[in-house]
Amino acid sequence: MANYARVIGTGGYLPSTQRTNDDISEFVETSDAWIFERTGIKSRRIAGDQETASSMAEIAARQAIAMAGIQPEEIDAIIVATGTPDRVYPSTGCLLQNRLGIKNCVAFDIQAACSGAIFGLSIADQYIKTGTYQKVLVVGSEICSRIVDWSDRGTCILFGDGAGAVLLERSEDAGILSTHIHADGQYEELLYLPNPQAALPENVNEAGYINMRGNEVFKVAVNTLGRIVDETLEANNMQKSEIDWLVPHQANIRIIEATAKKLKMSMEQVVVTLESQGNTSSASVLLALNEAVRDGRIQRGQILLLEAFGAGFTWGSALIRY
Ligand code: UT7
Q1: Is-above-0.90 flag for pTM?
Q2: Pocket test for ligand 1, best of 28, 38, 249 (most atoms within 8 A of CB)
């Protein structure tokens, strides 16, 4: 019975401009050594003036479509995760649909901050499993550089721009084995992006930049990701040793290492991109997946654990037989 969502294409896009730790240390009090030691990041990409979430999404999506060897009009649904939409509406999904020249599919955005790609995979999986759709495109695209306060050293060192895409198709061969998504809205004040235009009167003068109490977020992230690993393995009656690759959200190397340790995995089995990309929010997991698929590390038949944690808080995982 055909009831899996199988990965048939991946894509990724990174803007060409790099901003190194040394570049940042010219305008805030920090250093390459501090940033690298505390985060694992050396540089991040910065979108050009003419780039938007939808323009970057298009490049990543076209790569995924080409890898899958399908025509864009075969896609039944487009799901875009972004915290930096070109416009509040139309959704970036609709803008991407138009860019891809698709006339007849559904397209929408989801908002789950850094967990957006995992939420997108979960939604796509439900539609494919039920037979509603055959082919679903999931994209994470972010221009974080426009929503960070470049005078705040607690956040500006972390984030970068980019887009990742994955194309899923209903298949009899195993694909997504399970997804697990969660939210807990009580942590709003630890990590949020104000929306000055729709703010309460008392918050109306808040600038539209990421606010984060990094150290507190860090602690919750480590604990929460540890729990999601257990939940995912239990749901699939699987042992830690059966996982071939951890494909984590790229927030901080120390968070990633903690999850790898919990899984008793060596860092050789973890896809790490943050050294040169920073945290690209909802794009990061799909960018990492794309990189490891294209360089041949990830092979057909292997078991992948994708996971992410972000504002909300939101968190989730996807277990995939690639
Ligand atoms: O993707 C969504 C989820 N986001 C995350 O998961 C982010 C999680 N948080 C983090 O990655 C880390 O908390 C940071 C990298 C943001 C900060 O690292 P930390 O080890 O938690 O440092 P801290 O905030 O506890 O600060 C330690 C010290 C402070 O100085 P004092 O008070 O000890 O004198 C900070 O002022 O480091 C100072 N500091 C810096 N120093 C140099 C904070 N940022 C910087 C900086 N350069 N950029």
Answers
A1: yes
A2: 38
